[in-house]
Amino acid sequence: MMRRIFAVLLALTLCISLLGGCGSQKPENTEVPEDKVYNIKVGHGLPDNSSLHKGWLEFKNIVESSSEGKMVVEIFPNQQLGGDRELIEAVQMGNVTMTAPSTAPLASFNKAFYAFDIPFLFASRDQAYEVLDGSAGQAVLDTLETYNLTGLGYWENGFRNTTNSKIAIKTPDDMKGLKIRTMENEIHLAAWKMLGANPTPMAFGEVFTALQQKTIDGQENPIEVIYTTKLFDVQSYLSMTQHIYSPLVILINKDFYAELPQEYKAIIADAEKEARAYQRKLSEENEVKYIEAMKSDIQIVELTPEQLKSFSDKLVSLYDMVKEKAGEEVVNKILEASGKI
Ligand code: TK8
Questions:
Q1: Which of 183, 202, 283 to mutate to test the pocket of ligand 1 (most atoms within 8 A of CB)?
Q2: Which of 53, 132, 217, 294 would you call most buried, defined as having the most Cβ atoms within 10 angstroms of its Cβ?
C-alpha cells in the first residue's frame, strides 16, 4: 500500500515540476529596484548624420526621460562595435544590448528573414509599413525568440538603388559582368547572378575602399546610405532601380529585455514605436534631400516602367528560392499581406 502511495506522490511531484518547468514564462518582474540603473548599449552601422542614428537618439531621449534616468542608453554609430553580422552576434551574446541590422544579413542567422529579400515586394513605403507593422511582419519577428533575440519592430533602411563606376545601368543587359557587391545573403547573391552581374558578398564596412580601389565596380543601397557613407564620391552612375525595400530590425537581447521590470519593458517598447515613426519620416525626407545634394557629383539614371519590368521579369524564379529558404508559410503570409497573391 505504502509503495502505491509513494508512487502516486512521486508521479504528482514529477507532473507538477514538469508542468511548472516546461514552457512556463518567467514570472513578470513587477519590482522596480530604487537603486538600480539599467545600461543599454546600442551599436549600429551608419554615420551620425543618418536617420538611423537620429532615430536612436530619439529612442535614448524617450527612454531616459520616461525612466527618470533609471535606464541609460549609450549609442555607438558607424560600425564602432562592428558591422551588422558582428552586432547581431554581440546582441545574442549580451555584449551589446540593442542593434538595427538590415534584414538581409539577419537571414543567415534566422532564415525567416529571407522573406524580405523578394525583389519589388513593396510598391510603396506605406505598403511596406502596413505589412511590416502588421501580423505578417510580427510573425517574422516572433521567430527571433529562439535565437536569444527579441525583435521590437522595423525601422527604415529604404528602397535600394544601384551605383557603379562603368555604365549608366538601365536594363539587366547593362549589368553583364559588372562586379557588384551584395550583402552577405544567398538570395541577393542569386538575384544579381540572374541579372547577369558578377556579385561579391561583402560586409558593408569594406565597400567604400573596394569601390575606391576598383576591386568591385558597384554596389546597391538606399539613397541615405549612399549619401551619408559617401559612396557616391567613388561612383559615376546611380540607377534608380528601387529593386528591394530594405527594413532595419530593432533587436534587443532577449534575456535583458525579459528580466526588465514590467514598467521599464513598456517604456522601451513605447520608445521604439515613437522613434520608429520619427526615423521613417526623417528617412523619407532625407531621400529627397540627398538625391538633390548628389546631383552634381553622380549621374542619376531614372528608369522607365518598362526598364524596371525588365529587372522584375528576370527575377521571377527567385520567389520559389525564397519560399524554399524562408519557409512557404512565412513567405505566403508576407506575399498575401503585400497583395502579391
Ligand atoms: C549598415 C548596413 C547597410 C546595408 C548594407 O550597417 O550592408 O548594404 O544596407 O545599410 O545595414
A1: 183
A2: 132
